[in-house]
From TrEMBL:
Species: Candidatus Berkelbacteria bacterium RIFCSPLOWO2_01_FULL_50_28
Domain UvrC family homology region profile: 257-472
GO molecular function terms listed in the Swiss-Prot or TrEMBL record: excinuclease ABC activity
GO cellular component: excinuclease repair complex
Gene3D superfamilies the record matches: GIY-YIG endonuclease, UVR domain, UvrC, RNAse H endonuclease domain
GIY-YIG domain boundaries: 9-95
Residues forming coiled coils: none
Source organism phylogeny: Bacteria, Candidatus Berkelbacteria
Protein name (record): Excinuclease ABC subunit C
Domain of life: Bacteria
CDD domains: GIY-YIG_UvrC_Cho
Cited NCBIfam families: uvrC
Length: 546
């Protein structure tokens, strides 16, 4: 379709639709005219064309038939509307949340004589009040325990029985009147429930003011025991409120975010640190039709997950800077009623916790991928462990040379994606610059030509058949091309040995190692492919064909 005309310059949201008016993509913009226009620009400048380094956009634009824009008052409204529309339409080209586990809520039963609190993961139409969601069961349970201790509203999975001879243990330890022992009337208990609701709704200033007034009145009436109890309540409320707002203390509370991405599958792991202690984590899986960056994934997590939460700490530590970082921080702060900072730490324990989150995200992603049909992720995981790689080698390429005598020497590369051969990515090369039997120089030529092709993505692992010399000439070819894969190894046979850069002695693997078997399969495949090409060239030569 052609670029839409008369687009507004206001902030807002844009929806790309297909011929059936199905929403394929939702995005937000500070300036709709500029942002939407950049999708239609085919130039090489990434500041004016979103197609640069994003080939999936060209695919999407090939099926777009309609652009709808919605103007709003400001960027924060655009951000909120973007998240809402993504959740409603689940567009094909947006990043999608895959998590099938509901987040915990605090449930307050309202149709019972003595209402109670529960931590649940599903909201039902049962007349109860629900508060949340919370990012973890730990924080929801902690809030319930605080409310039970301070206001005497019970945390229980079943309706509270009455007529007991003695108060329950919690009431005895915490000094509360026990409804199960008929120590408090339903009317008095209802007042405690109302205060609990105010607390869960965030109306804590009202609660503090009310406690202060009652404490002063009790002191004037010389009800010192009641005044002391109210003083303890006030301290508890102040502690909970201030612990959410104070940053920079020796016992900080923050979330640290880590990610792992393989193909169109990804995981965000949020590590929870409260009062300086690691108290748990949440793994959040996502999927996408197109390749995504770490920054795009984190941004989507923040607007899709964090906007609903009620227990966000005052600091969220990020591994990278993201688009709309300041805007999202302002939005979340407005939602929570206190300042929330999104920051990329440079040193210290927050960097360590981000590394921990990254490690756990990778572990969770690998666990998910093992359950994926039609792939060989178990071998990829074995290969990752064998070579001590930071990530799964999603894209593996291998090179080999066939040079029988001096007749028609050739080279070839093969490509495996997620452990499976991708024959569309196989390439064959006629040797052009090397004369005579010089396999090393031929490897260098083929490698240089392969990595000089900027239209193809770089592999996570590049394998050359041979030993230290083949590895050395491979690196020389990479140097000449000016583009490098993440990892390069040489694989020698009989017995199988792996040569790594910067290491004199090869590494070996136990017999039957899945990682080594994967490498052997890739080596055999490139050997088969290059020999087949060589024989084809020789047949053509014998028939007098070019």
């Amino acid at each position: 379709m052609e670029k839409p005309k008369n687009l507004p310059r206001d902030p807002g949201v844009y929806l790309f639709k297909d011929e059936h008016e199905k929403v394929l993509y939702v995005g937000k913009a500070k300036n709709l005219k500029s942002r939407v226009g950049s999708y239609f620009s085919k130039g090489d400048d990434p500041s004016t064309s979103l197609r640069v380094n994003r080939p999936w956009i060209a695919v999407m634009m090939g099926v777009i038939q309609e652009v709808e824009t919605i103007v709003v008052n400001n960027e924060i409204e655009a951000l909120i509307l973007e998240a809402t529309l993504i959740n409603e339409h689940q567009p094909k080209f947006n990043i999608k949340l895959m998590d099938d586990k509901a987040y915990p809520f605090i449930k307050l039963t309202t149709k019972e004589r003595f209402p109670r609190l529960q931590v649940v993961r599903q909201r039902t139409k049962d007349g109860a009040q629900y508060f949340g969601p919370y990012l973890s069961s730990w924080s929801a349970n902690l809030a319930c325990q605080f409310l039970r201790r301070v206001y005497g509203v019970h945390l229980a999975s079943k309706p509270l029985p009455t007529g007991q001879d003695r108060p329950c243990l919690n009431c005895q330890l915490e000094g509360n009147s026990c409804p199960m022992a008929d120590q408090i009337s339903p009317e008095a208990y209802a007042k405690q429930v109302n205060t609990t609701v105010e607390f869960l709704e965030g109306k804590r200033k009202n609660i503090i003011r009310d406690i202060e007034q009652r404490m002063q009145q009790a002191a004037e009436n010389e009800s010192f025991e009641l005044a002391g109890k109210l003083r303890d309540q006030l301290k508890a409320v102040w502690h909970v409120t201030s612990s959410q707002k104070v940053v920079g203390s020796t016992q900080e509370s923050f979330d640290a975010i880590g990610t792992a991405i393989t193909g169109n599958r990804s995981v965000v792991t949020v590590v929870h640190v409260r009062n300086g202690e690691f108290i748990g984590q949440k793994n959040i899986p996502f999927s996408s039709l197109q390749p995504i960056t770490q920054a795009e994934l984190i941004r989507q997590c923040l607007i899709e997950i964090y906007r609903y939460l009620v227990d966000i700490p005052p600091l969220v530590a990020l591994p990278v800077t993201i688009e709309d970082q300041g805007l999202i921080s302002t939005w979340l702060s407005q939602q929570q009623g206190y300042r929330i900072e999104l920051r990329v730490p440079e040193r210290g324990e927050k960097v360590d916790f981000i590394a921990l989150a990254n490690k756990n995200a990778q572990s969770k992603l690998e666990s998910m991928l093992l359950k994926t049909e039609g792939t060989d992720f178990s071998s990829l995981i074995g290969l990752k462990e064998l070579l001590c790689l930071a990530e799964l080698p999603e894209r593996i390429e291998a090179v080999d040379i066939s040079n029988l005598g001096t007749s028609e020497p050739v080279g070839a590369t093969v490509c495996f994606i997620n452990g499976q051969p991708d024959k569309n990515e196989y390439r064959r090369y006629k040797i052009k610059t090397v004369e005579g039997q010089n396999d090393f120089a031929m490897i260098q030529e083929v490698v240089t030509r392969r990595f000089s092709d900027t239209s193809r993505p770089l592999p996570d692992l590049f394998v050359v058949d041979g030993g230290p010399e083949q590895l050395r000439y491979t690196f020389e070819g990479i140097r000449l091309a000016g583009r490098s894969p993440k990892m390069v190894i040489a694989l020698a046979k009989k017995p199988d040995r792996i040569y790594l850069p910067g290491r004199k002695k090869p590494i070996t693997a136990p017999r039957g190692s899945k990682g080594l078997l994967m490498l052997g399969r890739i080596r055999d495949e490139v050997h088969r492919y290059v020999i087949g090409f060589h024989r084809q060239r020789q047949r053509k030569k014998s028939l007098g064909k070019p």
